[in-house]
């Protein structure tokens, strides 16, 4: 059969992604990507360190980013994204900007962004400056996220965390939902679920419907901002950030607080915290969750499919 009439493939739109060595959710990233865009992933070199502030610093060193971005440039992406929340907030706002600058230099002026920078962009998009936070991290890493947000003018109204130092991708959706319910206290405009290694895609619509507010996740904001940078749109039915219909639905009903036009960044309010110990709990080396006794970690023999919500 003569297929010469087909010509060649359409010009490729590509998003280059630098992920930490332990990233396990490649398939989740693809779920936000439209059919005419490709993802090109590379990983940072392995280091024998559990999830911690030390690991966040190691996987975000400029030399590491330089090598990863240069490798991605071989396939000519239109933007390069660093898909790690803790690695991009551990140095504060200035550190995140320096990471973007380092990646841009490595890519010969290729646009670059990070998960934590994408989060701030998403919060501006939905006009949310008082948020609840959910993380799988230890207390010290969660504290660092809160410090980053505070520096950016964002108030954390409540939070919950698991205290994990490994196997974050195995956390079931039910644990994410339980943490969200504990974290959303006070007048929050949105919920943010941190960590690109924490599964979130399918749980976002249900949480938005239950909590009546936009729900953002690390992988979601990373892909949304990456696609926006190249003039494309993320795919995410019933997710307020990426679906205009969802933004007019239950997620738009929060409206408990919003700055008046021209009012600038709101003043920080009080913090209410809920430390949650779910079924996927930390190893013996993890930090305790605010004095709560944490049961031992018993990982499943096989990860299996995500648990239903």
UniProtKB/TrEMBL annotation:
Question: Domain of life, per the record?
Answer: Bacteria
Q: Where is the composition biased (Pro residues)?
A: 296-309
Would you tell me the protein name for this molecule?
A: Decarboxylase
- Leader sequence residues: none
Please give the InterPro entries that the UniProt record associates with this protein.
Iso_Racemase_Enz_sf (IPR053714), MaiA/AMDase (IPR026286)
**PANTHER family from the UniProt entry:** BLR3294 PROTEIN
Positions of the region Disordered? 276-309
**Organism lineage string:** Bacteria, Bacillati, Actinomycetota, Actinomycetes, Kitasatosporales
């Amino acid at each position: 059969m003569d297929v010469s009439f087909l010509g060649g493939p359409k010009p490729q739109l590509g998003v280059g992604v630098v992920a930490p060595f332990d990233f396990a959710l490649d398939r989740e990233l693809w779920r936000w990507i439209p059919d005419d865009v490709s993802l090109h992933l590379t990983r940072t070199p392995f280091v024998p360190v559990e999830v911690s502030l030390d690991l966040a610093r190691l996987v975000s060193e400029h030399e590491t980013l330089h090598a990863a971005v240069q490798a991605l440039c071989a396939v000519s992406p239109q933007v390069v994204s660093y898909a790690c929340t803790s690695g991009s907030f551990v140095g504060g706002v200035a550190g995140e900007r320096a990471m973007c600058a380092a990646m841009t230099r490595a890519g010969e002026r290729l646009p670059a962004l990070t998960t934590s920078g994408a989060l701030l962009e998403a919060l501006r998009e939905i006009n949310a400056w008082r948020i609840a936070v959910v993380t799988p991290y230890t207390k010290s890493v969660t504290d660092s996220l809160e410090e980053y947000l505070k520096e950016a003018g964002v108030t954390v109204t409540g939070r919950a965390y698991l205290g994990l130092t490994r196997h974050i991708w195995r956390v079931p959706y039910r644990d994410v939902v339980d943490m969200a319910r504990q974290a959303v206290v006070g007048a929050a405009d949105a919920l943010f679920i941190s960590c690109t290694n924490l599964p979130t895609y399918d749980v976002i619509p249900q949480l938005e419907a239950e909590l009546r507010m936009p729900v953002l996740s690390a992988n979601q904001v990373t892909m949304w901002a990456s696609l926006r940078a190249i003039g494309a749109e993320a795919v995410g039915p019933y997710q307020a950030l990426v679906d205009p219909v969802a933004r007019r639905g239950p997620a738009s009903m929060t409206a408990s607080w919003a700055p008046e036009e021209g009012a600038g960044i709101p003043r920080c309010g009080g913090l209410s915290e809920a430390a949650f110990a779910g079924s996927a709990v930390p190893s013996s080396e993890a930090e305790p969750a605010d004095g709560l006794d944490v049961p031992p970690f018993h990982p499943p023999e096989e990860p299996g499919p995500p648990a239903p919500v």
